[in-house]
Design brief:
Elements: H1 3-21, E1 26-27, H2 29-36, H3 40-49, E2 60-61, H4 62-72, E3 79-84, H5 88-95, E4 104-111, E5 125-127, H6 131-138, E6 142-145, H7 149-162, E7 166-169, E8 181-184, H8 187-214
Parallel strand pairs: 3-4, 3-6, 4-5, 6-7, 7-8
Antiparallel strand pairs: 1-2
Length: 217
C-alpha cells in the first residue's frame, strides 16, 4: 500500500466516524468523495481493492466501514503510545483528548526535568530512567519524540533499544535510526509552505484583478 492510499483510507475512516457522530448509519461513495474532493469512482475503486463491500444504491454501513478499515490498517484494539520530551509540544500532545477517538492512547510521558515529573497524574509523567521498564512492561511500540535537537539522536536510539519500532519525530534533527520507522513532523517547514502558497495565491488574485481592470473601458 502506498502512502497516498494509506492517507485516503484514514480520511475515509475519519469521515465515516464524523457521520456516525451525526447519527448516520450508512454512507455513500459520493459523501466520502465530496469530503475528500475526489471522484466517487476512486472511492469505489479503493474499496474494491480491499474487498470493502457495500449495497447497490444502499451505500456502506458506517460501523462496518470503520471496522473494516481498522482491520486493513492493522489496528487491534487501542494502540499505546509514549511521549518523550514534555515541553510545550509534548505537553500539548499528552493533554490532547482526540487520540482515543481513533484508537490511540498516550500512556505516559518521559522527561529528565525533575520539575516535570508527575507520577500520580493520568497519564503519568515519569523520569527518562523509567522508560525502559515501562515500555517493555506495557509492550509499547510507538513513541513520539519531542526533545531538543541536541538530544534527539541519543534519545531515539534509547527508545529503539527499549523496543520502540515507530517514532513520530517532532524534533528538528534528522534521525539516523535502524530497525525503526521514523516520520518527521516539521511544523516550521509546513507553516513556511502554507505562508508561501497563501501569498502566491494572493499575488495571482491581485494580478487577475489588475488585468480585469486594465481590460475594462
Amino acid at each position: 500500500m502506498n502512502k497516498d492510499m494509506l492517507n485516503r483510507l484514514i480520511q475515509y475512516k475519519n469521515v465515516a466516524m464524523r457521520m456516525k457522530e451525526l447519527g448516520f448509519v450508512r454512507v455513500f461513495s459520493v459523501n466520502l468523495a465530496d469530503a475528500l474532493n475526489i471522484n466517487p469512482v476512486k472511492v469505489r475503486k479503493d474499496f474494491s481493492q480491499f474487498h470493502i463491500k457495500g449495497k447497490n444504491k444502499g451505500g456502506y454501513d458506517v460501523d462496518y466501514l470503520i471496522t473494516k478499515i481498522d482491520e486493513i490498517l492493522g489496528k487491534e484494539g487501542v494502540e499505546k503510545v509514549v511521549v518523550v520530551g514534555v515541553g510545550n509540544i509534548g505537553s500539548a500532545l499528552i493533554n490532547y483528548p482526540g487520540f482515543e477517538n481513533v484508537g490511540i492512547k498516550i500512556v505516559a510521558g518521559f522527561d529528565i526535568d525533575p520539575a516535570k515529573i508527575k507520577q500520580d497524574r493520568e497519564p503519568p509523567i515519569l523520569h527518562l530512567d523509567k522508560m525502559k521498564d515501562f515500555v517493555q512492561q506495557e509492550n509499547v511500540k510507538i513513541g513520539i519524540l519531542a526533545v531538543p535537537e541536541v538530544a534527539a539522536q541519543r534519545v531515539a536510539e534509547l527508545m529503539v533499544s527499549y523496543g520502540i519500532r515507530g517514532i513520530l519525530n517532532f524534533s528538528p534533527a534528522k534521525l539516523k535510526i535502524k530497525n525503526c520507522i521514523v516520520t518527521d513532523v516539521h511544523i516550521e517547514a509546513e507553516l513556511e509552505n502554507l505562508v508561501y502558497f497563501v501569498k502566491n495565491q494572493e499575488k495571482i488574485s491581485t494580478t487577475k484583478e489588475k488585468q480585469k481592470d486594465d481590460n475594462t473601458y
